[in-house]
Amino acid sequence: MKLEILSNVILKEDHYLLELSAPQDFKEALPGQFVHCRIEDSCDPLLRRPLSLHDVDFSAKQGLGIVRVLYKAVGRGTQLLASRKPSMSLDVLGPLGKGFDLKTLDTKKKIFIVAGGIGVAPLFFLAKQLAARSSGRPVAGKVVVLVGAKTKEQVLCEKEFKKLGCDVHISTDDGSKGFKGRVTDLLKELLPSTLPAGRQALTICACGPKPMLAVVADLAKKNNCQAQVSLEEFMGCGLGACLGCVIRTTSGYQRICHDGPVFDAGEILWRG
Amino acid sequence: MTARSLTQGRSYGEGEHPVKPRLEVNIGGLELKNPVMVASGTFGYGDEFADYVDINKLGAVVTKTITKSRRQGTRPPRVYETAAGMLNAIGLQNNGLQDFIDNKIGKYKNLKTKLIVSVGGETNEEYADIVSALSAYKEVSAFELNISCPNIEYKDKIIACDEGLTLRLVKEVRRATRLPLIVKLSPNVTDIAQIAQAAQEGGADAVSLVNTLLGMAIDVKSRKSVLGNITGGLSGPAIKPVALRMVWQVHNRINLPIIGMGGIMNARDAVEFMIAGASAVAVGTANFVEPKTSLEVLEGISDYLCEHRFKTASELVGSLNVS
User: Fold this and answer.
1) Which domains does chain B have, with CATH numbers?
2) Which residue among A29, A123, B45, B223 is buried most deeply as judged by most CB within 10 Å?
3) B306 is catalytic
């Protein structure tokens, strides 16, 4: 379907926020799901680009929704996308894939949201849904967000998470803001002190580069808590047909586009 | 260029619309209501695309390749985009013959088009066994023998890269079924028409071409291949001129019907394949770009035949003007 581009602006170096008009198909969209975007009508770039939903907002006007996509212009496809102007349209398939399992994310539990780089994109949508589900009760102390970036210039969504009432911690690789080091090191530091007696009372939701997610999975296992991770991969069809975007799991190769992108961290064979 | 634009500038009023062309084609005994199918491996088992395409409108659906035992496939990464094309190395991941019989074949009960099952194997016997077992199911209309997957090897060789292996395999599988046998050829050969002749001699009813071109790409930062399998198969518009040339060469050398494929993105591409000698066409990689491509191609072929006053799709086949 062709969605109208409402805005497409640069936020911070190479990071863009795209707003699309959303039909009703997106009303039930879940955090972790993605849209498969055809950026050019020509043959080059050929394939669609999967971009996760950063926000789906049907609160504005009657019936008219907005889909937000936060992306980093890293390759030809996303760079071309960055040049698209409002009132142009974008051909998307979606929402696709399996999102975060919200049923198990009860805000009575403590939830750690861990973002690495552009991996923050789907996690804002997740935090927003968690806040909405807590029906007015503050999520402070319940939803803890860790935002990791290379430098302070690349820290995204800090204000937005705070606005939702989440506890926000920042890490940067160069120490220019917040904790100096990797976001997983920050997670390691925060985890033990905040763990209540019953360790199952905590869930981690993470998105970021694969090596980071592997560390998150490892920490979750060591601390005996559940973790949901959202993975990224080049995709062919995006519909589960081509088997191009697989990840090795305890039950064989699973399709990131269709069986994921969100998986239980314990199922993934990270060294596979 | 879109399918629609083929007929731009020519529109017919209600009364002067030419007779609707007949789209039916016969592929070695397999009657298809139209010449457009989907290429194996790009359309799963059909149901994955059900939200986007009414698969009953297609001439045929070709399944992802079935092997006798379950295959886990190659190590990821498995796909990578190249200039106007894509590389893939999936390695025929599938759950095997028994799973297909138990869990997939029933889904085709109400299919209103032809089902062609793509068959792969590591030995001739495996191909014959699958074909023999599936011939008993009325849902199955024909078989496509995938002897040209570049990502698995059969005794260190791709069958379709060797005349003798092709002849022996087709002969042996021929004995296992009365249903039409389509042999899928590899472009990774010096003379594809020679392999096509071997398939014909072995008793094939049709040939389909081309499978992917063997290729690779390297990430210069890590000096690693972009694919877990190191090499993969190149598909998409980048390979279309090569595929088209091969269809033309095979058309000139054998008498069997040809299913043409390789980078078909729109109706114009499909019409080129038919002019070169393909009786039917298959849409592959374009399904990933736009899931509805196959139906757009079908509509565009019909429009083309109308505009150029062809009464049947078959008249177009091999009509290349060489004067």
Assistant:
1) 30-263 (3.20.20.70)
2) A123
3) no
